[in-house]
Amino acid sequence: MPIDIGSEIEGKVTGLAAFGAFVELPEGNAGLVHISQIADTYVKDISKHLNVGDTVKVKVLGSAKTGKYDLSMKQVGKPEWQQQQQQTMMRRRTPRDQKDRPTPGTFEDKITQFLKQSDEKLQDWKRNIETKQGIKKKKRLVP
């Protein structure tokens, strides 16, 4: 009998990894509690929160494969509106590196843009060096 998504059930921690904890569920099913779903606070080391053999209460978030489930410990006992609000806030956050990503284009466009930027930087560098060395010649007025 499959487990319903959204239900809260008890399971036993069977393994720990850097990215989450593996939990054995009733009827031979298994699931993973991702490190971000273990506690409301930032979790750096899972072993400070869980140990192999612990019995934990989890909420079923989704099904990855038959008999494999995505689980959460931090959403257990929270009302539905609070969970939806938290998920909305998580979706609004953008990765830090998303701003730095180049705009998609053809290879030729990227090469052209790179060459233009490198020429500009080289000219700035040369101007800076010349002014520091005093090489930049001033115009002399000839009488």
Structure notes:
The protein has 143 residues and is an alpha+beta fold. It has 2 domains: 8-93, Nucleic acid-binding proteins (OB fold (Dihydrolipoamide Acetyltransferase, E2P), Beta Barrel); 101-133. Helices cover 28% and strands 25% of the residues. The protein is built from 2 helices and 5 strands. The chain has helices spanning 80-92, 107-133; strands at residues 8-17, 20-24, 30-34, 55-65, 68-72. The chain has a 5-stranded mixed β-barrel. A hairpin with a 2-residue loop joins strand 1 and strand 2 (20-24). The longest helix is centred in the C-terminal third of the chain and has 27 residues, at 107-133. The model has no long low-confidence stretch (mean pLDDT 79).
Give a quick set of tags describing it.
143 residues; OB fold (Dihydrolipoamide Acetyltransferase, E2P); five-stranded mixed barrel; 2 helices; 5 strands; 25% strand
Total domain count: 2
CATH topology of the largest domain: OB fold (Dihydrolipoamide Acetyltransferase, E2P)
Low-confidence stretches: none
Distance between the termini: 103 Å
